[in-house]
Write a structure and sequence with these properties.
Elements (H helix, E strand, L loop, with lengths): L10 E5 L4 H12 L3 E6 L2 H11 L6 E5 L5 H14 L5 E4 L15 H29 L3 E6 L12 H21 L4 E8 L8 H4 L2 H10 L8 H12 L10 E4 L7
Parallel strand pairs: 1-2, 1-4, 2-3, 4-5, 5-6, 6-7
């Protein structure tokens, strides 16, 4: 934890907050004194994370939520506001990648599901939280977890790349619209990070060898390394930063 960054008095929602990148971000927020609602489909992951975070300065509340269901997102925001207060920070982290494989095998159902989880959930949560951020006049920070796959095509990952590219453009559009209300919107584009979500890639020895031979920082990243960037973007240290995509990839896209 950075002693210079405090989120005391702030309230955050982090989707996918029970494991991986979402859990790492939530930890950094709670360490900085933020009260955080962590959300995902699996309550056991949320309860485990909340128990782990219990000794930290901020409060953690677990809320089961399927981000593809509008009524569950509404309940997530309603319960967060009831138990913690108005939302200052929103992290759209939940994602899926069911369409990995040759593009000719992609079905309409895959497209609908990828858009529902990777894009529509963010749009819905922004509709549910930004009006309050504007009304409170204290500002707000929205952090969308994109991917370097949204900056360059991921091989046989057409839908994942397309939805992450769209999320990056949505980030810029929201930033342009909400900036005059002191609501900032930024994205983080991780490279290959060691999480359950990405194990298809980092458990592939040939892929990792290629990464180690070509990436300037020759290793797979850690969730905590995304958490640090999210903490910066959530804090007042980034008060003049909006509409940006921060690449955290060990230099993979530098070549």
């Amino acid at each position: 934890m950075s002693d210079s960054i405090s989120l005391k008095g702030k309230v955050a929602i982090v989707t996918g907050g029970g494991r991986g990148i979402g859990k790492a971000i939530s930890r950094r927020f709670v360490e900085a004194g933020c009260d955080v609602a962590i959300a995902s489909r699996k309550m056991e992951n949320l309860l485990s994370a909340a128990e782990e975070f219990a000794p930290l300065p901020g409060k953690t509340i677990p809320i089961a939520c399927h981000v593809g269901r509008a009524e569950e997102l509404e309940n997530l925001v309603r319960e967060t506001e009831s138990r913690l207060g108005p939302v200052d920070i929103l992290v759209n982290n939940s994602a899926t990648n069911i369409g990995q494989g040759p593009s000719l095998n992609i079905t309409d159902d895959m497209v609908f599901k990828m858009v529902e989880i990777n894009l529509l959930s963010a749009l819905r949560l922004i509709r549910l939280t930004v009006p309050s951020m504007i009304e409170c006049k204290s500002g707000g920070s929205i952090i969308n977890i994109a991917s370097i796959a949204g900056l360059r095509p991921q091989y046989e990952g057409l839908l994942y790349s397309a939805t992450k590219a769209a999320l990056i453009m949505m980030t810029r559009s929201w930033a342009a619209e909400f900036g005059r209300h002191n609501v900032r919107v930024n994205a983080i584009a991780p490279g290959l990070i060691r999480t359950d979500f990405s194990e298809f890639f980092w458990k592939n020895e040939e892929r990792v060898k290629h990464l180690e031979a070509n990436q300037p920082i020759p290793r797979v990243g850690l969730p905590e390394e995304i958490g640090g960037m999210a903490l910066y973007l959530a804090s007042d240290d980034s008060s003049f930063v909006t509409g940006q995509t921060f690449v955290v990839d060990g230099g993979a896209t530098a070549r």
